[in-house]
């Protein structure tokens, strides 16, 4: 069976095609992504109207390129992100998915974006055992419990303020490193001392929620540090600030993820989302998983950021699990709950 997936929840227009084999494994046939990230750079964050317009321009060419790359004329099923995400951006992918599904007369599956970030790992690392998933991107920071990809996901915790990637972007902006700032901040941190500045570890007190995150206090601490340096007229130690900030984010994320695996008796941790490209988040997850006897699964960076393949792969798992197709009248759901896997 061949499944085509469409993703348009944020600033990437993704069209992916996978083939599901009889043994349940999936094979990647096409992975086309057009990003509008450059158009948002001067605003320092994703501008919803710009993202929607870029999706409109990119979706049909991306569909054509993906079909040509896979050598497929008509897939057997179509999967699309129905939420969570930006309303106008989602609308473009969902409208396109409905039109293609109707024209090809194939079933449509309207799916949860977050499930896709977990499902995509099966392409590289095989069937997914029950796991804890840590999703960190510009729009999301979630700690999830996944028992079966075809079943609803349980949310253990999430950020109460900024997403982790958003915190990277805001701090990078404070340091004059451009947008998106995650990669630049990561590079600057490579030359810094992670112990140079004792930035706070948000929400790690004994009375704080076990699995939720907060990064706004950390961001404020960095802003205060930068202000104080400006008043004193001292030169900003940018590598040390970057390394110390990054250490705090990686510390809290991996500590709570490992805590969840221990609490739940689960031996697999999956990472997903664009911010898992971060060098320190990856290395600390590796160190702590090894120490705790937890198996760590991380998709390659290209599959960690938003793409259509992850939705196609989730679609293949959901179909294999016996799900019914969604109605062609299905509506986008910008605030879709993690626990709702399909609409
Ligand atoms: P969504 O939240 O809907 O998944 P998004 O577009 O906000 O989508 P992604 O495209 O998955 O998120 O990831 C982009 C985010 O990842 C940005 O915030 C970026 O700064 C961050 N990021 C990318 N590389 C790194 C890195 N090496 N270190 C830290 N953050 C990074
Ligand atoms: Mg993005
Ligand atoms: Fe995403």
Mean pLDDT score: 96
Give the class-level CATH name of the largest domain.
Alpha Beta
Coarse morphology: globular
SSE string, helices as H and strands as E: EEEHHEHEHHEEEHHHHEHEHH
**Which small-molecule ligands are present, each listed once?**
adenosine-5'-triphosphate, magnesium ion, fe (iii) ion
Number of helices, counting only DSSP H or I runs of 4 residues or more: 12
Query: Total domains, how many?
Result: 2
GO molecular function: iron ion binding; tRNA N(6)-L-threonylcarbamoyladenine synthase activity
EC number: 2.3.1.234
Cofactor: Fe(2+)
Organism: Nocardia aurantia
Outline the fold blueprint.
Blueprint (H helix, E strand, L loop, with lengths): L1 E6 L4 E9 L5 E10 L1 H4 L7 H23 L6 E7 L3 H18 L3 E5 H7 L1 H5 L5 E6 L4 E6 L7 E5 L5 H11 L6 H9 L26 H17 L5 H27 L3 E5 L6 H14 L2 E3 L3 H4 L3 H13 L23
Parallel strand pairs: 1-4, 4-5, 6-9, 9-10
Antiparallel strand pairs: 1-2, 2-3, 6-7, 7-8
Magnesium ion (MG) binds next to loops.
Describe this structure in words.
The chain has helices spanning 37-40, 48-70, 87-104, 113-119, 121-125, 164-174, 181-189, 216-232, 238-264, 279-292, 301-304, 308-320, and strands spanning 2-7, 12-20, 26-35, 77-83, 108-112, 131-136, 141-146, 154-158, 268-272, 295-297. By secondary structure, the chain is of the alpha/beta class. 44% of the residues lie in helices and 18% in strands. The chain folds into 2 domains: 2-124 and 303-321, Nucleotidyltransferase, domain 5; 131-298, ATPase, nucleotide binding domain (Nucleotidyltransferase, domain 5, 2-Layer Sandwich). It has a 5-stranded mixed β-sheet, sandwiched between helices. A 5-stranded mixed β-sheet has the order 8-7-6-9-10, with helices on both faces. The chain is globular. The structure holds adenosine-5'-triphosphate, magnesium ion (MG) and fe (iii) ion (FE). Residues 9-11, 85, 137-140, 165-166, 168-169, 180-183, 186, 273-275, 277-278, 305-306 line the site of adenosine-5'-triphosphate.
């Amino acid at each position: 069976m061949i499944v085509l997936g469409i993703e348009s929840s944020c600033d990437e227009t993704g069209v992916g095609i996978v083939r599901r084999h009889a043994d349940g494994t999936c094979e990647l046939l096409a992975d086309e992504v057009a990003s509008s990230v450059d158009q948002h750079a001067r605003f320092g964050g994703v501008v919803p109207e710009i993202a929607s317009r870029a999706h409109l321009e990119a979706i049909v060419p991306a569909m054509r390129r993906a079909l040509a790359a896979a050598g497929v004329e008509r897939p057997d099923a179509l999967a699309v992100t129905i939420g969570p995400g930006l309303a106008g951006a989602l609308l473009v992918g969902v409208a396109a998915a409905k039109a293609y599904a109707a024209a090809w007369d194939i079933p449509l599956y309207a799916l949860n974006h977050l499930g896709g970030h977990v499902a995509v790992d099966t392409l590289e690392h095989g069937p997914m055992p029950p796991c804890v998933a840590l999703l960190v991107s510009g729009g999301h920071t979630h700690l999830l419990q996944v028992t079966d990809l075809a079943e609803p996901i349980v949310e253990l915790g999430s950020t109460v303020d900024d997403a982790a990637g958003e915190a990277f972007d805001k701090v990078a902006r404070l340091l004059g490193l451009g947008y998106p700032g995650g990669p630049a901040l990561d590079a600057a941190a490579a030359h810094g001392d992670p112990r140079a500045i004792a930035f706070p570890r948000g929400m790690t007190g004994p009375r704080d929620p076990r699995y939720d995150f907060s990064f706004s206090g950390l961001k404020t601490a960095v802003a205060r540090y930068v202000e104080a340096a400006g008043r004193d007229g001292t030169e900003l130690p940018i590598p040390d600030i970057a390394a110390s900030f990054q250490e705090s984010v990686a510390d809290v994320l991996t500590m709570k993820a490992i805590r969840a695996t221990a609490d739940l008796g689960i031996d697999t941790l999956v990472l997903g989302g664009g911010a898992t490209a971060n060098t320190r988040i990856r290395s600390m997850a590796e160190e702590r998983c090894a120490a705790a006897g937890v198996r760590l699964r991380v998709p390659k960076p290209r599959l960690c950021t938003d793409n259509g393949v992850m939705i196609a792969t989730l679609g293949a798992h959901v179909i294999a699990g016996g799900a019914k197709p969604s109605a062609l009248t299905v509506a986008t759901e910008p605030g879709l709950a993690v626990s709702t896997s399909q609409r």
